[in-house]
Design brief:
By secondary structure, the protein is mostly beta strands. The chain has one helix and 16 strands. Helices cover about 10% and strands about 35% of the residues. About 30% of the residues are buried.
Length: about 190
């Protein structure tokens, strides 16, 4: 009987350790090292802000805020970097998920004449949030270009009016593998 209880205790301890290990954080960043994985960006990546600031998570794990129209951003842990002078957004394993908005929602909002570069060997996902108006996966008020050898998956969100995967008020040039999924608008007739 004593031997059987010890066996049960050993199994209990092993199962407890397995559970604890499975709940441990997977994206741990230690001081002085590069992150091994990106974090999901919750909310629009709006690179058109003029007076407001854009918040992001840096590689040190702290939240930083900058004006994206004037300040280059190269230290994100979110799988992207931005150079405002050339209007170049580089995606390197980004996972951007828009949130619900009562107004128009976006996954990524770009200035006119922007360029998206998909880093080699990366898979990047952009999902627009649900909206009571319109939903755009990636939107620009002017032309924009997508290039590079990475992969880009864009999904527009559910919307009451229009739902667009990629949209521009001008033209879009694509020189990469891009999968675009537009969800049906929720219209009542």
């Amino acid at each position: 009987m004593v031997r059987r209880k010890k066996g049960h205790r050993l199994i209990s301890v092993i199962l407890t350790l397995c559970i604890l290990v499975s709940y441990s954080p997977q994206n741990i960043v230690y001081a002085g090292t590069e992150p091994t994985a990106t974090v999901v960006r919750e909310g629009v990546l709006d690179l058109t802000l003029n007076t407001e600031t854009l918040a992001y998570i840096s590689v040190s794990g702290e939240v930083k805020s900058v004006n994206p129209t004037t300040t280059p951003i190269s230290d994100t842990m979110e799988g992207w970097s931005w150079i405002p002078s050339s209007r170049t957004l580089t995606l390197s394993g980004a996972d951007i998920k828009g949130t619900f908005e009562s107004s128009t929602t976006y996954g990524i909002k770009l200035p006119a004449s922007a360029k998206i570069v998909l880093e080699d060997g990366t898979v990047n996902n952009v999902v627009a949030g649900k909206s009571n108006v319109d939903s755009y996966g990636i939107y620009s008020s002017g032309n924009f270009t997508i290039e590079g050898s990475g992969e880009l998956n864009v999904i527009s969100g559910m919307a009451s009016n229009n739902s667009w995967g990629l949209a521009s008020d001008s033209w879009i040039s694509i020189y990469s593998k891009v999968n675009v999924y537009a969800q049906e608008a929720m219209r009542s007739y």
